[in-house]
Every structure is written in structure tokens, then in C-alpha cells.
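New here. Your pick:
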Amino acid sequence: MGRRYALKRFVFLFALFASVGFVLVLGPLMAPYVEFYTRSIATLSGAIIRIAGGHVQVADFTLTAPATGLSIVVVNGCNGINVVVMLWSAQLAWPGRWANKVKGMVLGAVLIQVANTLRVISLFYLNQWNKAWFEWMHLYVWEILIMLLGLAVFALSIRQTPAPAVSDGAK
């Protein structure tokens, strides 16, 4: 199998898996599970804030600071699932051993969700401190960091994959 073919195959499979993943995640069949998961992130973030000595009220997807009344809402798109779908699509499309794929998928999903929980907590506090910083961190910095984390996990996991054999005639 030539390198061009392998690259075309990866791009095709990645696009296919990502499309199917996003159709599932955004579709009505998975909506109750995505909502439950998103609500769980808000609840977990609130619990961590309380354990660390902070004050927060959690109602469904909303974290509210009781002293100021300022709130953030965790919605689909802020739950890290989109990055997990991209990572899983890349892992499944890349040629390699299934054990390495599954390891990368599980480890990546856990790391992404830990980082995303830290994101929600930091945004809760940033919202109380400075709205402009909150918006900037929410829309740009954290979004990029979570995507880079997914990319880094993928890059590290494919390093374990042996290079595909290339025939003498293929370039």
C-alpha cells in the first residue's frame, strides 16, 4: 500500500467516522444521553468547586455564584464531546492495532473530559471576575487548548504504529 493511498484512505475514513459521529451526537436518538452527560459535567464541576471551598448553586446545566447571581450554562458544545468524536474518528481511521486504537480512545476521552471539567470551573470563576476575559477564554483559549489536547493524544498514539510498508514503485 503506497503512502498516497494510505493518506487518502485515512482522510476518507476520518471524514466518514466524524460525519457519522456528529450525526449520532447531534441527532435525536442520542439527545437524552448527551443532555444527561452535559448535566453531569455541570454537577461534577459544582461538586469540585464545593469540595475546594467555593460556593456554587447547580441547577440542571447552570452553575450560579450565590453571592453575585452570575451564572454560566454548560451546553452541548461545551461538554467536550465534539473533541472526543474527532479524536475517536482519527483513531479509528488510522491504520494500526485495535489495542492501540482503544487505548488512545479511552485515554484521550478521559484526558479531554478532565481538561473540560477544569475549563468549566475556570470559566465559572472568570465569569465572576471579568466578563471580557470570560468571553475570550471561553471562545478562544480553552477551545483551542482542548482541541490541541485531542490532537496531542492522537499524535502520541500513532507514534506507536509502525510505518506502513512502501513498495519500491510507490512514492
In short: The radius of gyration is 19 Å. The longest strand covers residues 57-59.
